[in-house]
Each structure stands twice: as C-alpha cells, then as structure tokens.
Design brief:
Layout (H helix, E strand, L loop, with lengths): L3 E4 L2 E4 L1 E4 L20 E6 L6 H9 L2 E8 L3 E2 L2 E2 L19 E7 L1 E10 L2 E11 L3 E4 L3 E6 L6 E8 L7 H4 L6 E4 L2 E4 L9 E4 L35 H8 L2
Parallel strand pairs: 10-16
Antiparallel strand pairs: 1-2, 3-4, 4-5, 5-13, 6-7, 8-11, 8-13, 9-10, 9-12, 14-15
Length: about 240
C-alpha cells in the first residue's frame, strides 16, 4: 500500500494503524502475533489543496482528513478502525461532532451512545461513495470495511478535537462485532440495546448536498459551524440520528 497521498499541491505521509495496535479491540485476540504485524489502515491528517485553503481552514479552526482502509479479514471479523469517542466542547456538556464522506468503496459505521460505560443507543449506517455520515454529539464510532474493495473516506472536524480511545478499549471493542456471519454482541458491555439501522442523508443546512465533494465546503466554510458549536444545533442532530 502506498503510504503517501497527493492532494492538490501537497503530499501527506500516512499514520499507519498496525494489527498489533488493535490488540485490545479485536473479536479474536489470537490474531495478534509478534511474528506477524500487518498494516491495517492509513490516516492522512491535515489535508488541503494549497496554502490559501490551508489558511482558510486554519482560520476557521477546522481540519480535513482522509482515511484509507483496504479490504481484509481479521480472523472472522471484518477490518475496522480502532473506534473512538469525542471530547466535549469547552464550557459545555456537548461533545464535538464529526462528518464523513465516502470517496471510494463503501463502509459500515457503528455508532454507540455511551455514558459512564453504559450504552444507550446503537446505530448502524451503511454508506457508499458520495454518501455523508454525521457523527452526532454523544456518540462513539467505528468504521468497518465489509467489501472486497478499498474504502477511502474523508472527514471534517474541529481542530481542537482529539480522539478518545479508552472507552472502546476498556470494553474490548464496540458494543457489537461484525463477523462474516453478521453482528454479534460484545459480552464486555452490560445490557446492549438492539441495533437501529438508519440511512445516510444529505443535509443542505450543513452544506452536505448530494453529488458534491465535501472538501469544496472550504469555499463556504461557514456551513461547518456545527462542528465547532454543536450546542447550537442539537435539534438538527436529533433529527439526523432519528430521535
């Protein structure tokens, strides 16, 4: 796998997630081996096309990233991201949201609303190229590639955002594992709710319109205010997540 990505005038080298980095969150931990530690997926942070775009993005306290997940099985489990939760906006009780767009392939997003280690809601979104997936405040999430093609996705997030991995690690992964036979519950959680399936959706209020490349919001970056001030958009998030 090429570990560099060319985007406009810049080139980015990937942060690589290795199999052994995923030790705590795998369904079958016997897949981890000191003799075999393959690369699983690639994260390209702080992407922009030129200096003007960079200054615009930075001025608005945002960041654009790309993640690439080649197809793979880890034992019986489909390859996935490590999974993370989001920190709260300073001075509020609301965590930062995040928005993804599938650029190539298709992915399965597992979202779980957690508080004090208890899961109150589990949502699965199946998305394909061009689709948007919004991660609302209060939800941790994992992305899974169930296809035989590479999954490439982009995301916008507040620059002050820093992923929190411990809540997922402490429970040996998400509330559900996705195996070749389907989803199964993770016994490390107590009283897991049933999965709710929702569809990806465009959301013009946030500048997320069908058929448009999400990066181009750099030219209308005010639409991404919801990523920095989510407390002002809670009704929108509740509508998007179906509650």
């Amino acid at each position: 796998m090429v570990k560099e990505i060319k985007f406009g005038r810049i080139t980015r080298t990937a942060d690589v997630r290795m199999l052994n980095d995923m030790r705590e969150v795998l369904y079958d931990k016997s897949q981890v081996s000191i003799r075999r530690n393959p690369e699983l997926y690639y994260m390209y942070r702080e992407i922009y096309k030129d200096d003007y775009d960079f200054e615009t993005i930075k001025k608005h306290n945002l960041r654009y990233d790309i993640t690439v997940i080649p197809p793979r099985m880890i034992g019986r489990e489909y390859v996935k991201t490590a999974g993370h939760c989001h920190p709260k906006v300073p001075g509020t009780d609301v965590s930062y949201p995040e928005v993804y767009q599938i650029l190539e392939g298709h992915g399965t997003y597992l979202l779980q609303k957690m508080e004090g280690g208890k899961v109150y809601d589990v949502v699965v979104i199946n998305a394909q190229a061009g689709d948007y997936v919004i991660i609302p405040p209060g939800y941790c999430h994992i992305t899974i590639n169930t296809s035989d093609k590479t999954l490439k996705m982009s995301n916008w997030v507040c620059r002050e955002f820093s992923s929190i991995y411990d809540p997922i690690k402490r429970h040996s992964g998400g509330a559900y594992y996705l195996l070749d036979t389907g989803f199964i519950k993770n016994p490390e959680y107590y009283e897991i709710p049933q999965i709710r399936y929702i569809s990806p959706t465009e959301y013009p209020k946030f500048g997320l319109n069908e058929g448009q490349d999400m990066y181009n919001l750099v030219s209308g970056i005010g639409k991404l205010r919801f990523l920095k001030k989510p407390q002002e958009f809670m009704d929108d998030f509740n509508y998007i997540i179906g509650i």
